[in-house]
Structures are given as structure tokens and as C-alpha cells.
Amino acid sequence: MYCTLSFPCVHFVPVGRTCCNYRRVTLAAHSKRRPPKDSRYRPPKDNRYRPPKDNRYRPHPKQPPDFGVNLFLKKPSTTSKPTEADFDINQENDEVEDENVGVVWESDELEVISSLFQGRIPQKPGKLHRERPLPLPAPYKLRPLGLPKPKTQVKLTAPAVVSSRASMAKKVYKSPSFLVGLAREMSRLGPAEDVSKVLGKWVQFLRKGSLSLTIRELGHMGFPERALQTFLWAQNQPHLFPDDWILASTVEVLARNHELRIPFNIDHYTGLASRAVLEAMIKGFIKGGNLRLAWKVLVVARRDKRMLDSSIYAKLILELGKNPDRHRHVLPLLDELGERDELNLSQQDCTAIMKVCIKMGKFEVVESLFSWFKQSSYQPSVVMFTSVIHSRYTEKKYREALAVVWEMESSNCLFDLPAYRVVIKLFVALNDLSRAMRYFSKLKEAGFSPTFGLYKDMLQIYMASGRTAKCKEICKEAEIAGFKLDKYQVSQINENL
Fold first, then answer.
1. How far is CA 401 from CA 298, 396, 427, 430, in A?
2. pLDDT per position as a tens digit, 243-283
């Protein structure tokens, strides 16, 4: 017989559970007797509580797993199902817990419980702004920089719709081989023929700036009149002119071949010209050797406060520095370059300015250019290293020049013949025989033939060190190479022998 007794103020708790300590009495009694197996007792069948047929075997929804326990690491339970002895032990534990005092909840625990229903857990004071990890890179951003990037603007027109003439024009109008081919074809024309005979066939494929390369190529071939005819023909084409690139190329070709007519009011002309045209005019005059007109145009541009490219100053300084009488024109150009905040000088421009400054004794300009070039994240070449070593050697700063040699060696820079010549001169001035011999042997191992000056330098350091046998060997080697030493040096060697 199985029965349960309860009072109106009492709630029923299943056997084996802990009773809440709210001073309520719960009685649960059951009999250990079981109904006999042959008992024909059957529970009453009441159709009123039977569910409908379509919902009789409704599947139960799956319960979510307990996230506090790792289901994969949990060991399988080896205990058997609870027995009647376990129910008796649970009843004893319930009686002991009833004797204990009720549990008192703390304020922070109550706050956490209440926040669960509000949707937010209060954070403890401390690091409010949590550093979140960076997002993982997208696959399209993992592409190396050297590879082409996907196109952002795609043409909506299908390739089949675009005409063959338009696609050909896009390939032809900036093709160097096509533009140089036009210049060669125009150079084969007869004296009575005009360039329109060649250009008329390709007029639909040309764009603005296309003919600038053709005009420069005609100038290199020595046809300045054909270049002028090409410019005049382009003026009559509305889709090709006005164009500063064609005008600048024509002006440079005419100025280089002394075909450019300079008006008396050059101030008015240069005031209307653009920067590209002014630079092309000065370049043409410099290449043509007309430094007077180049200096005149530059003076007018400086007076009008026209900012020209730094390479123009470098080319003019190099040409003016070849003549010692014109060194006075170099100083204002160097001062103007020094006042600029930004310089646009290539490595060739820097070395050209360095060579002129070494001749003029402006060694501080050489040092400032060398430091600026290295600060600009550029790697100096063997020509620049040689110029700096020669500058410090001329200034008799041998130890500082030796530091540049070690820097040159550490950068794995290959020496050329001028570099070997300057370095051996430096070691001769330092009276360092071993290093001078080593670099002299390196020069011959690299396949270079020693010059007459190198033979004289090696002979000088051998004589200063008392190496008479080496002096005789150097004299024989120089005679075999076709050089004839001074009689004074030969007589000194014979006296020492």
C-alpha cells in the first residue's frame, strides 16, 4: 500500500530531496509492501483525460545541455540506480538539515540573481575598457603587395559590343614602338612630302600627349624641321591640341638644335609659358651648349618667382662648373637649392653637384648632400661613395675618408676603376703599405688594368717603405703596359739598388 499524507499548510516534497527551511512540515509515508504479482488490480480507465489521437505520442523537445559541465570530458557513470537503502540515507540527511539554521543570501548574490532577469550582469569595478583582439584578416587582404589587385571599376559594356577600332586605339596611342615607328616613317619622307601623309592614316588612334615621344625621337634622329611640322599638324587637330607636352617637346628639340628663335621681349614670353615649357627650354639650351640663353631664361624665371625642378639646377651647375670662369654663377644656384625645403634630386644629380663642389672647395655641400641622400632612405652607389672619399681626401681628412671605405665594404658595393684609384691614393697618403698592396691586387683580380697614376702611387709607397725589389717589379710591369716612368724616379731606384 502506497499513500501520502499532507496538511493544508504543508507542501509535498518527493522522497530523497532536501526540504526548504521555511518551518513547514511535510509528511511522506510509504509502505514497503508491494502488491502481489498475481494481483488483478488495474488503474481505472477514464477516457476524459486521454489525449487526442493526433497528439497522443507527441515528441518531447530536447533539453539544452548543462554548460557548466564538459560533456566530452565527463566520465561515464558506473553507479547503479538508487536503492531503498539510499532513500533511507536521504531521509536521515533531510532530518539533519532541518535542524540547521536557514540560509541567508548576501546583497551581491541577490543583485546577481536579479540581474539575470534584467538581461545584464553588473561588472566589478576595475578595467572598464576591455581590449578586444584584432579581427582576423580577410582572405582578399592576404594577397602580397607585388601581385595585381582586383579591379574596382568594371566596364558594364560587354567586350563583344565594343568596336575593334576603339580597342585598338587604346593599345596604340601610348605604345612606344608605334610612336617611334611613326618617327622613323616620317624620317624616310622626301623633302617635298609633308608629315600629314603619315599622320593622316593614324589620326583616329592618337590622343593628347601621344606625339610628344614622336617629336623627341625626331629630334634624336636629327630632323628638327619634321618635329616642327608635326607640331603644326597637331595644332589643326582639335582632339590633340592644346597640349603642353607636345609644345614642351617641340621647344626642347628646337632649342637643342639651335632652331628656336628667342624674341627680344623674353620676359613676356616666359611669363605666359607653363612650367613644363620653361624646363624644356632650359634643358634644350643646356644640351645644345647655349648656356648664356639657359642662364637668361633661369634668371627671368627666378625673378618672376617661378619654382622650377631641382634637376634643372643640377644640370646647369654641372655645365657651369666645367669652366672655372663661370664658378661665380654656381654659388647663387647652390644657395637657392639649400633654401628649399624639399629636393627632387636623383643620384646622378647629387654626384654631378658633388664633383663641381669638390673643384670649388665647397666640401660642406658635399657632406650635406651625402647625409641628405642617406636620410632619404636611398642606397648610395659606388660613384657617390667615390665622390665622398675623394672630397675628404682632398680636404685631407684621411681618417674620415677611411670610415667611408669601411661603409662601402659593409654594403657589399662593387668597386670600379675610379674607386680603386681613389682608395689606393688614400692608403698611400696614410702610408698603409699592406692595404695598398691588397687593393692593388684586388684591382688586377677584378680584370682592371692599372693606370699610370696607380703605378706612380705604388712606386712611391714602395720607395718610402724601402722595398727596392718591389719598385723594380713595378717598373718592369709599367714598361710592359706601355708606360714610361720619370727619369728622376728611375735614377732614385737605381741608387737604392
1. 36, 9, 10, 11
2. 889 999 999 999 999 888 776 667 777 777 888 999 999 99
Phi-psi domain of 222 (left: phi exceeds 0; alpha: psi -120 through 50; beta: other): left
Integer Cα distance of 183 and 261 in angstroms: 24
Contact (CB, 8 A) for 231 and 250: yes
- Spacing of C-alpha 348 from chain mean position: 23
What are the grid coordinates assigned to 203, written together?
589620326
pLDDT tens for each residue of 138-197: 655 555 555 555 555 545 444 544 445 555 556 677 788 888 999 999 999 988 888 998
What is the DSSP track for 347-386? HHHHHHHHHHHHHHT-HHHHHHHHHHHHHTT----HHHHH
CA 1 to chain centre: 91
Cell matching residue 94: 533531510
Report residue 76 as a C-alpha cell: 561515464
Which triple of cell numbers denotes residue 210?
Answer: 601621344
Cis peptide before 65 (omega within 30 of 0): no
CB-side neighbour CA atoms (13 Å) of 342: 4
